[in-house]
């Protein structure tokens, strides 16, 4: 046994790779086909992993949005929330709320779903105003730039 799951066997006087009890030839043409098959399998696995992750994050975002009475279909839709001891209401956005609560995990997920940190709340402040540390500000900016380049996930999928 070489590595963890690789085994070689001799069949007809030639060394072949044994996988799932059926030997696979290691001749040049066969190795190329095997390599292509492995790459295709990896792509399928990466896509399945990406879809599972997106579904898990989508559920997390929808739960967060509904908990604070935001529209569960739009990460950029605000809501009127009581923000003072006097019961005054202010227009708050989901990303601003996550930043105020110092929920870095939720901040990054909301950004991944397309939340715009430059939108202004009821007091005219963007999300960066509420950030407590430079490290968090830089992390938000990097995530926002990454999502702008790669595209955001959709809540409606």
From TrEMBL:
The keyword Protein transport does not apply. SUPFAM superfamilies: Ankyrin repeat (SSF48403). The keyword Nucleotide-binding does not apply. ANK repeats lie at residues 94-122. Pfam families: Ank_3 (PF13606). InterPro entries: Ankyrin_rpt, Ankyrin_rpt-contain_sf. It comes from the Eukaryota. Keywords: ANK repeat. This is UDP-glucuronosyltransferase ugt-48. It comes from Cladocopium goreaui.
């Amino acid at each position: 046994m070489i590595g963890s799951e690789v085994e070689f066997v001799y069949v007809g006087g030639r060394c072949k790779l044994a996988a799932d009890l059926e030997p696979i030839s290691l001749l040049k043409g066969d190795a190329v086909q095997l390599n292509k098959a492995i790459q295709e399998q990896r792509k399928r696995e990466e896509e399945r992993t990406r879809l599972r992750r997106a579904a898990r994050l989508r559920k997390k975002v929808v739960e967060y949005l509904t908990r604070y009475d935001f529209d569960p279909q739009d990460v950029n839709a605000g809501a009127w929330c009581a923000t003072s001891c006097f019961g005054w209401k202010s227009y708050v956005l989901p990303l601003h709320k996550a930043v105020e609560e110092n929920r870095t995990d939720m901040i990054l997920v909301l950004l991944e779903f397309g939340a715009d940190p430059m939108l202004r709340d009821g007091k005219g402040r963007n999300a960066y105003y509420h950030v407590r540390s430079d490290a968090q500000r830089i992390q938000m900016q990097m995530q926002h730039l990454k999502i702008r380049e790669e595209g955001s996930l959709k809540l409606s999928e």
